[in-house]
Amino acid sequence: MIETPDEKKLIKANFAPGKISKDGFLGSDERHLPDIIAQDNQTLLSLDISREEIAKNLQMLIDEGKKGLESPIDYGNFIIQVQWSRGALPCPFGDKIFVPKIMATVRHKQLKSTIEFSQLSVHLIGKHGFFGGKGSHFRLEPVDLVGFLNLKR
Fold it and tell me: Domain containing 122: what range?
């Protein structure tokens, strides 16, 4: 897919390292932003899971983790620790929204695996279908998330 000049400008301004995030949002992924989103959307379609459902579950984990006041809490199959910093981050897609700087580390007790994500990640997935570029620090693979969250149909 060919990016428009406006998309190229947006990517350079907001998704590259340094502007919003020290490491940026695309990692080593050389695909065009619309292609990254389209491929992840195809994956979700094949799994019969919506991005909104994933975001809702990630948000629930953050909300439960907040109850621990930055200490780990035991929640069903998960151990959740949420930390927050002062300030907020803007959405790199340019919506007029600022998201609190909240990080969640969630360990699945049975799977013995851990994911780390931010409040911004929840917004990017739920609103834009963006799970991060391959190789980026905060990339969340849709297939892995569905298994981790036990959302399989």
Answer: 5-148
